[in-house]
What does this fold into?
Amino acid sequence: MERTFLAIKPDGVQRKLVGEIIRRFETKGFTLVGLKLMNVSRELAETHYGVHRERPFFAGLVDFITSAPVVAMVWEGEGVIASARKIIGATNPLNSEPGTIRGDFGVNVGRNLIHGSDAPETAQQEVSLWFKDEELVNWQPALLSWIHE
Ligand code: IDP
It folds into this structure.
């Protein structure tokens, strides 16, 4: 079953949107298999956002992600990587559709509330960067046959 890495960024945690954001993935039909509230080290932030190292916003992004707690999560389900990106919305919340997390709660690209892996390779890399194997829980929700044919 496909898995993706999602993280509620410091703005989402500070704005008390953790429950609201988790609810959207739960009610869609995805399964939570890893969850932790944590402070992010500079080393982890710089590795996670390594592809943006040369961008002008990189230093500010690392400062922001390390400034307050983050909720790191792994979600499982059919098509969860691409579907989570749709639920999250476009990178700039001003371009995100209403109904998406960023579209409903954000106005600024530097405060866009949540991260989601963008492809199968990055999902795998990010899950193993943020979580140890033993922190992930393999389980079968009782409702699975009412969500999947
Ligand atoms: P994504 O989070 O939608 O996948 P990416 O392009 O991978 O978007 O950018 C990673 C993160 O970097 C964004 O979520 C946002 O927090 C930050 N970011 C991207 N572009 C800008 C910018 O122009 N100014 C400030 N922050 C930015």
About this structure: Residues 52, 57, 61, 91, 109-110, 112, 115, 118 surround inosine-5'-diphosphate (CB under 6 Å). The mean pLDDT is 98. Residues 18-28 form the longest helix (11 residues). The CA atoms of residues 52 and 58 lie 6 Å apart.
